[in-house]
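To illustrate the input format used throughout this study, we show a single complete record. The first block contains the structure-token representation of the backbone; no residue identities are included at this stage. The design step must infer an amino acid for every position from geometry alone.
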């Protein structure tokens, strides 16, 4: 039988308290998404627990968001069209770069890697206007390609650093054995390194997916306000009305936009911690 410990009880209570505090706003948002504008203005969301069954709940907010003709369905497809390539492109490029930095010997390797890591501290906001001007000169602004390239560029530094930490810690004997068998760097990378690097790839995929899916600044800068190419974050701002009079729709719209990121995280969560700890422990 496990010995009773007050310290363990204190830790469990503290963790439980933090979980409650962290999730309470989400619970309030979820309850509010099923309330009408009038009931929201009349009372707080916490009052529903004493008035269950009183007709406070309605699906009107979700009906307006999903089927109200505000273009949310189109925005959802646009978000997928932006997010998937913006996740795949940097992963592919960074994986090749990380392998090269870890296992290939070429002049300037250390300096180039330091330059990549240094880019992590550069705020993306300072690059928006120069990149936008460059896009305007080649008539690229307002297209999905513009957003793909922007997100790929902004995410490459983190992706390369994260994947390098993992790939560089793979057993050296594996690489030497592959070389002795006559495998080229490309063969070693595709058949050996990539399958072993799935945890790190999945960890970055989660980070990048959540960042791109919830992005508003980059999408607004490079896509503009054309309704045909707007993503979900832009549509959520638009559906509130010109004066914010329909702000209650944000609550249901927020949960609609959360569905895909939650599914992605649940599907890749078993790799998440392993990928985050990549390269942190040696041996």
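Output of the design step:
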């Amino acid at each position: 039988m496990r010995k009773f410990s007050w310290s363990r009880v204190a830790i469990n209570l503290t963790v439980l308290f933090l979980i409650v505090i962290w999730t309470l706003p989400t619970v309030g948002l979820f309850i509010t998404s099923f309330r009408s504008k009038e009931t929201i203005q009349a009372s707080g969301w916490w009052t529903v627990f004493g008035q269950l069954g009183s007709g406070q709940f309605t699906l009107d907010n979700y009906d307006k968001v999903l089927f109200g003709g505000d273009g949310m369905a189109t925005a959802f497809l646009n978000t997928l069209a932006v997010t998937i390539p913006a996740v795949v492109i940097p992963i592919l490029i960074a994986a090749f770069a990380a392998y090269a930095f870890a296992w290939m010997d070429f002049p300037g390797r250390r300096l180039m890697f330091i330059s990549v890591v240094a880019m992590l501290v550069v705020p993306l906001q300072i690059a928006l206007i120069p990149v936008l001007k460059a896009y305007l000169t080649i008539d690229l602004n307002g297209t999905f390609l513009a957003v793909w390239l922007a997100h790929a560029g902004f995410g490459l530094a983190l992706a390369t650093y994260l994947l390098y930490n993992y790939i560089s810690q793979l057993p050296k004997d594996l690489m030497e054995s592959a070389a002795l068998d006559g495998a080229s760097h490309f063969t070693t990378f595709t058949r050996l390194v990539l399958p072993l690097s799935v945890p790190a790839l999945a960890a970055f995929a989660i980070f990048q997916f959540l960042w791109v899916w919830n992005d508003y600044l980059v999408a607004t800068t490079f896509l503009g306000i054309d309704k045909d190419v707007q993503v979900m974050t832009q549509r959520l701002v638009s559906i509130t009305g010109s004066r914010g009079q329909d702000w209650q729709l944000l609550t249901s719209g927020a949960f609609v936009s959360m569905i895909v990121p939650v599914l992605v995280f649940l599907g890749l969560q078993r790799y998440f911690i392993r990928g985050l700890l990549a390269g942190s422990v040696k041996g």
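Structural context for interpreting the output: The mean pLDDT is 82. The domain at 64-277 is CATH 1.10.3720.10 (MetI-like fold).
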